[in-house]
Amino acid sequence: MTWMLLALLFSPPILINSYITSFIIVSSVAFVCLAKSKILKPQFDSQLFLIWFPFLIVGAFVPFYYGDSTAIWDLRYFLLPITLIFFFLGFYSYYQQLSIANLYTRVCQIFVFFLFINSLLSLWWIFDRSSLGFLDVYNKFHESGYGVSNYWRYIGLYGNPNFDAAMFGYGLLFLIALGLSKLSKWWMIPLAVLIVMGLFSTLSRSVIAALIMVPIINSLIQLPKILVGLSVRNILLGFLILIIASMIALITYSVLVEVKFAFFLDNIWRLSKVFDYFSNERFKLVLFYIDYFSNNTLSFVLGNFAYKPEISLYSSGFTDNDYLYLVLKYGLVGASLIVWLQVYSYVIGARLDEQKTDSVSSSIGKYLKYSSIFSLVVAMASVPFSNPKIFFVQMVFYMVGIILYKKNIRMKNE
């Protein structure tokens, strides 16, 4: 799994594009794990996702029903459900026999190393983007003139400002989860500052908005428990944390302004419109898809993998809203299963956090809670599910969490 994670985080789109490259990496490693497993243990997720297959088979005929032209390339959309099955079966069957704590340590080290390299490159980009042309190996759009050295937003190891921003968002939540689980190290604060600078260099409003929503939604979910344990001491502590967080944000902003005042001043209007959603093209696209689904019921229920919107701006069928994208390609059933996976990830995270078995369980539990909320929110204006480079990195943490949770349950019952 560690080699797969390394490949996902650092490999450029060697085979056709990052979409195909990532699926080949995940499915190949998952198949090897499945072959090496002494006992095949179908985990609940893999059994549940088998429900998807009958709908996929029927849905494959939807384009023919509507007369939409299809090509072999369109069949790539079937890679996600197939790879997911291999992933769940292979990794659960193999790693449930091994020490999950050691695996988690290696996963953390690799993820932290990636965050450090990508955020350091973003700092380099702020000072001298002209010397970062080598990053175009990750960027498939440089041939159209959107190169790393001349584009006004940072394009890093994920080849797209919004994708890099999403990984910075996950990274920030990961560091917070470690810090709140008594696993904090001296290097976490400098790394967090670097990640914040990287996030600002991408100028991604959707990620910033999602990060703001994570503590709000998590607090609302846990509101009954919070009210029960409320005291004057806790209120004062909350205010103290808020003041400290505000001071860190102010200092970080001051540093950013001092480092590259013109860059942030020129683009501050974009960041200030973090919730400016209903007046841009994304909301217009939402209305377009609602109209399309209301007139094409089969596409809504079963998906239409070959359909491309009749809007010149989105002629490739791409949409920044991952919920719309999933419903379009996989139907309501497939989209619901992916959403359920995120909800279940939060549930597993909450249970791990409540077990308080050790700091490792607590940290992975907190991260699963925060990252699942973040994914569900940012999916309204980004692609954390349909992009395999993002999605399967998070599935690594999910798989570690669910194996750890089940091992803790077994140990408790013995």
Condensed summary:
The protein is mainly alpha-helical and 414 residues long. It has 18 helices and no strands.
Ordered list of secondary-structure elements with their pairings:
Layout: H1 2-10, H2 18-36, H3 44-49, H4 52-59, H5 62-66, H6 79-95, H7 100-128, H8 161-180, H9 188-202, H10 205-221, H11 223-228, H12 232-259, H13 261-272, H14 281-295, H15 297-302, H16 322-355, H17 359-378, H18 388-413
Helix pairs in contact: 1-2, 1-7, 2-6, 4-16, 7-8, 7-9, 7-18, 8-9, 8-10, 8-17, 10-17, 12-13, 16-17, 16-18, 17-18
What does this protein structure show overall?
The chain has 414 residues and is mainly α. It has one domain (2-413). Helices cover 71% and strands 0% of the residues. It is built from 18 helices and no strands. Helix 2 (18-36) runs parallel beside helix 6 (79-95). 40% of the residues are buried.
Provide key terms for this protein.
globular; 71% helix; 414 residues; mainly alpha
> Strand portion, in percent?
under 5%
How many helix segments?
A: 18
So what's the overall shape? Answer: globular
Structural class: mainly alpha
Order of helices and strands: HHHHHHHHHHHHHHHHHH
Q: Which residues form runs of ≥5 with pLDDT under 50?
A: 312-317
Report helical residue fraction.
Answer: over 70%
* Biggest beta sheet attributes: none
What is the domain tally?
Answer: 1
Quaternary structure: single chain
Tell me the total number of β-strands: 0
The average pLDDT score comes to: 80
Cα-atom Rg, whole angstroms? 22 Å
How far apart are the first and last residues' alpha carbons, in Å? 28 Å
